[in-house]
Structures are given as structure tokens and as C-alpha cells.
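anyone seen this seq b4? input:
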Amino acid sequence: GVFAINWGDLLDLLRNEEMSDVEVIEGILEEADELVERGRWEQAYRQNRRAYDLALQIGDLALQREAQQEFIRTHLYEANHWLGVNDWSKADAINQRAQQLAAEYGDPFLTEEVEDQRREIDSSLTYQAQNHLTAASESKRQKQYKRAFNSIQAALSTVNASDDPSLQVQVDELLVEIAVDWANVLVEAGGPAAQLAELVETGTDGAEG
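predicted toks r here
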């Protein structure tokens, strides 16, 4: 019969002829680091898990710890990447995953790193929400309700991911004001019933929030 083997496993097999188990695992971890530097996150995670599984198989606790620590830090690096391109939702989700992993791992230093990043993300989210809030308020003042509504919706999605209750209240209040004012304008102009119903529902939800 023919024994099928993929290219990656073949390379590992060839390396094993000349390298110890520990050296192979260290090599895989180095490859994962290189993938992180190139922003190839999913491949980096997969390589890290390969290294961790091999470290489990040979019972090397030091390599298991190294792989776990780097796995968590890779989440921090990826969250930083998304934060840098203003993709708050991805940065937030990946940081939350890092928080969960750090809590399970139980390393206080890693936990502190994750919490520091959490504060940075919250600060960025608050700044972004305030910008949207200011834009919405200005558009409302100019009676440009569609633009105001889009800005306040953006503020709402941003502030929902942050931990700022006072800003949440400001966003909810302005959302209600914009929805009510726009609905009144549409009523006077004989606007479509469906759009009016949507605005009334939005204003009601904001008031209850």
C-alpha cells in the first residue's frame, strides 16, 4: 500500500532524524512567532497548538508553559493589530478571549498584561463613542436627522462594547431625542408609516435602555 503524508509532516519527519523532540517543538514555536510577526494569526495559533500537543505527548512541562504563554500573548498581539486599524469589535472580542485564557492559565503577570490592554481598548472605545456622540449632536442641531441617526447608531454600537455607564446614558438620551425629532418631521411631511414605526420603536428602546 501507499502511505500518504503531507509536506509539513514530511518536513517534521526529516527534522526528527537529526533533531530531538525538544528541538522540534522549539522550532515549531519559532515558526509560530514568525507567523505572528507577519500577522498570520490563524496559522500562528495552529502552529502553537501543534507545539503544545507535542509538548504534552513528551511530558515537557517547561515547553507546555512556554506554548501556553505565547498562545495568550498572540491573542494580545492580534487585538493590538485590530485596535491599530480601529476595528474595535474584533479587538474587544479577542481581548475577551485572552482574558478567559489567562484566567484559566492562572499567571498573574499575563493577567495583568491582558487587563492593561483591556483598559486601553476601553479608553479607545470611549474616545470613539464621544466623537460619534459629538457628530450626532451637531447634525441634530443642523436638523440633518439621517446623518445624526447614523452617527448615534455608531456611538451606540461602540459604547456597548465599552465600560462607561455615564456615556451609555448620554448616547441613549440623544438617540431618543433624534428619533423623536426625526419622527415629528416625517409626520409633518407625511412620511412613510414603516419608517415612522421604526423610529418610534428606536426611541422607545432608547428610553427603556
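The mean pLDDT is 84. Residues 108-141 form the longest helix (34 residues). kinda curious what u guys think
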